[in-house]
């Protein structure tokens, strides 16, 4: 997000201040609409990171009924045998929401990642 906020021209904020806009008004009326794509990409990346979280869920969730999907996938691997058919079916179910979200919003994700990275 710092790339988005640093790439915003300062002249826009100066013009808003001259017109009588407060600092908070500049943030709400100018900075937030201009950084909408960046916030959208940050939200998508946060969703993907939280959806695939394994370590924290394994450490902090002790109740079997409350285990998350990535933790449940580890139950298919046993010490002596692995049930590959059910494990691959569960993996497809686990990655489906991420693939759907990415395929729907792929243009916005690419635009957001490239907009904040351009300098100059």
Explain the overall architecture.
- By secondary structure, the protein is an all-alpha fold.
- The model has no long low-confidence stretch (mean pLDDT 82).
- The longest helix has 21 residues.
- It has eight helices and no strands.
- Helix 4 packs across helix 8.
- The chain folds into two domains: 34 residues, no CATH class; 85 residues, no CATH class.
Mean pLDDT: 82
How does the helix and strand content classify structurally? Answer: mainly alpha
Largest sheet: none
Strand tally, please? 0
- State the helical fraction: over 70%
What is the chain-wise order of helices and strands? Answer: HHHHHHHH
How far is it from the N-terminal to the C-terminal residue, by CA? Answer: 17 Å
Q: Give me the number of helical elements.
A: 8
The radius of gyration is 21 Å
How many discrete structural domains? 2
The proportion of strand residues reads under 5%
Unreliable parts: none
Shape, principal axes of CA atoms: elongated
Features:
elongated, mainly alpha, 8 helices, 0% strand
Topology:
Blueprint: H1 2-7, H2 10-18, H3 23-34, H4 36-51, H5 55-60, H6 69-73, H7 84-104, H8 106-115
Helix pairs in contact: 4-8
Question: Concise description?
Answer:
By secondary structure, this protein is an all-alpha fold. The protein contains 8 helices and no strands. The radius of gyration is 21 Å and the shape is elongated.
